[in-house]
Amino acid sequence: MRIRKRFAALLLACPLAFGIAPAAQAEAQADSFSTEQLEQIVAPIALYPDSLLTQILMASTYPLEIVEAQRWRSKNAKLEGDALDAAMKEFDWDPSVKSLAHLPDVLKRMNDNLDWTQDLGDAFLAQKTELMDTVQRMRGKAKEAGNLKTTEQQVVKQNPDQIIIIESSSPEVIYVPSYSPTVVYGGWGYSSWYYPPMYPYYPPGAGLVAFGIGVAVGGAIWGNCNWGWGNTDINIDIDRYNNFNRNTNINPERNQINKADRGGNKSGWSHDPSHRKGVNYKNPNVASQYGARGGSSRVSQNDARGWSQGSASNRAAGGAQAGTRDLGGGDRGAAAGQRDFGSSQHSPSASTRQSGSRDSAYSGSRSSSMDRAASSRGASSRSMPSYGGAGMRGGGGGRRR
Fold first, then answer.
1. For 186-207, how does the pLDDT look when each residue is reduced to its tens digit (9 = 90+)?
2. DSSP reduced 3-state for 384
3. What confidence score (pLDDT) does residue 203 get?
4. I need a labelling partner for 135 at 20 to 30 A (CA). Which of 45, 89, 281, 330 fits?
């Protein structure tokens, strides 16, 4: 193991000695997230119950649907339970996105922090093993700091292999934890943040995990984690999933799961690129897997605006297809300094991700007909609120780059 690590360090330090061009090395690094970046990506949700964590991970791979679902949900805030499920039948969102409509606060944070959501989804698709191991490491840090324990709202278990499982006290009710990622993990932190601190100061008790009122979700949450160091996977409860799908989809047979390939009533999860709506994939290997093209440009709130303004009837009839989405004209300024998130400052850890790229955020479509010109972002960027739970004070703005 030591020899392997030394070889890897030498490879990074002297790429030319091994016939690797610096440009190729930089490109490979830009296609993946570092350990530090992964820790900061998962920090806001690592202490969520496994079932909720899973739903967020799946839904994060469909950022445009997150945007549309949140905007619709904000206008229909009074819908709950069966009425909410029935109302979603007119939309073709992925079931994982629809499930989060039962947790509007979570859906809103994902929409308000779209850059973070896209990073989470890209990391989950391309570096799932590393991402899930990072979740476990962060849970270990919180537990060692005394900030992760069994409460009235959750049950915390630790296996002999140090895997930490977090379960809701009731499978029908979700308590969304609220905590400060910059405090709850003890001495964890960085001098330069990939994502800036969630607020400018630490309120009393910030290191503790707090809970709001439980949300009755019924069968809307149907995913869970099948933990294992280096091989964590996602389990789908087939009965709960199919029942939720029947209640929320006008054509439930399109998404129905008929085979239990994990034993019992469990099935694995597969990303559905049709719900990606043409948004590109950061990692070219992932893009190739789904018949798309990789790119570093990102979808913004402006890009999604025209799409979410389409009529419900168009969406229900496939209005998300090419030719029915009005994404605005003009070129996307995808060069550094023209993104919609945060200030124009770049942190060293993230600077390689945007340098010189001019790909459309929709270049990840599986056919050229689905590619879209997006709204011009302009030279000035607009700050967005940082990701945080209830009680996390404003400040810090968008992500540093």
1. 988 887 777 775 444 566 666 7
2. coil
3. 63
4. 281
Percentage of the chain lying above the pLDDT 90 cut: 49
Q: Which residues contact 133 (CB under 8 A, 6 or more apart)?
A: 229, 230, 232
- The SS3 call for residue 233 is strand
Q: Both tokens of residue 276?
A: 């990606």
The two structure tokens encoding residue 368: 């050229």
Mean pLDDT of 3-27: 47
- d(CA 304, CA 374) in angstroms, rounded, equals 9
CA Rg value for the chain? 21
Confidence of residue 303 (pLDDT cuts 50, 70, 90): low
| Secondary structure tally for the chain: helices H, strands E | 14, 9
Residue 140 makes CB contacts below 8 A (sequence gap 6+) with 162, 164
Nearest to 59 by CA among 6, 14, 18, 120: 120
The pLDDT of residue 144 is above 70: yes
Tokens of 12: 């990074």
Q: In this structure, are residues 342 and 383 in contact, taking their beta carbons and an 8 Å threshold?
A: yes
Grouping H, G, I as helix, E, B as strand and the rest as coil, residue 154 is strand
Distance of alpha carbon 187 from alpha carbon 236, whole angstroms? 35
The partner residues of 267 in beta bridges, in order of sequence, read: 236
Distance of CA 38 to the CA centre of its chain: 12
How far apart, in whole angstroms, are the C-alpha atoms of residue 83 and residue 89? 10
Q: Are strands 173-174 and 177-178 parallel, antiparallel or unpaired?
A: unpaired
What pLDDT sits at residue 161? 93
Separation CA 109–CA 359 (nearest Å): 27
Taken as a whole, the chain contains a residue count of: 401
**Residue 222 half-sphere exposure toward CB, CA atoms < 13 A:** 23
pLDDT band at 297 (very low <50, low <70, confident <90, very high): low
